[in-house]
Specification:
Helix content is 39%, strand content 28%. The chain is an alpha+beta fold. The chain has one domain (7-131). A five-stranded antiparallel sheet has the order 1-7-6-5-4, sandwiched between helices. The protein starts with 6 loop residues before the first helix and ends with a helix.
Length: 133
């Protein structure tokens, strides 16, 4: 399997969620290099911009929009990848995990408790990263 092939990551997700009472909506996205405006944008460059924004005023404007939508500030999550953040609302969210020059986004639905959603997402991310070598 190649690093860009999420099939193995999806299989890992099914294994982690198999103990869950009901089938849960699941999304795993794997990001690699992309072209934008004729330039190559690496996952690390995107990551820096997204989670360590350069423009303080832009960050403040993003914060205003997030508050209006009920979204919380991205929070660091330990124990997975080089760096990980949880971003979302009290009813939905996603775990973003950076490892090397790749990042993944994991989102699990059907779980009401945010702490449980974060932990399931973290477990899925660990399994998915193990398969993306």
């Amino acid at each position: 399997m190649s690093a860009g092939d999420p099939a193995g990551a999806r299989a890992a997700a099914v294994a982690v969620l198999s103990g869950h009472r009901h089938p849960a909506p699941l999304s795993i996205a794997v990001a690699g290099n992309t072209k934008s405006g004729g330039k190559t944008v690496t996952p690390r460059a995107f990551w820096r911009e997204q989670f360590h924004g350069r423009d303080e005023h832009a960050s403040e404007r993003k914060g205003e929009t997030r508050e209006q939508e009920g979204e919380t500030e991205a929070r660091p999550i330990g124990g997975v990848g080089d760096e990980a953040f949880w971003s979302g609302t009290r009813v939905a969210g996603a775990l973003y995990v950076l490892r090397g020059n790749t990042f993944i986004r994991v989102s699990v639905g059907g779980i009401n408790d945010e702490k449980e959603r974060i932990e399931k997402s973290r477990q899925l991310a660990v399994s998915a990263l193990a398969r993306l070598q």
